[in-house]
Amino acid sequence: MRAHDRITFDPQILGGRACIRGMRISVSLLVNLVANGMPVEQILKEYPLLEADDIRQALQYAAVLTNEELHPLTSSPL
């Protein structure tokens, strides 16, 4: 299994935003639901086509995107 094989991008679905398995359920929606305290069980009840692994991968994908690294600019000699 690929690391994020449930995360898909299609210009015809939500303008190409990161979605779950080609559905019109965005990664950002799931991350926001979890961040605002909705339990996974309730998310799965509200969105019956989702699976727990979909939510897990959405969170993992978001974590990868926020893994920022600072690289100071250096002056190059002329």
TrEMBL record:
Q: Which InterPro entries match?
A: DUF433, Homeodomain-like_sf, WH-like_DNA-bd_sf
User: Which SUPFAM superfamilies would you find in this protein's record?
Assistant: Homeodomain-like
Q: What is this protein called?
A: DUF433 domain-containing protein
Its source organism is Candidatus Nitrospira kreftii
Tell me the organism's taxonomic lineage: Bacteria, Pseudomonadati, Nitrospirota, Nitrospiria, Nitrospirales
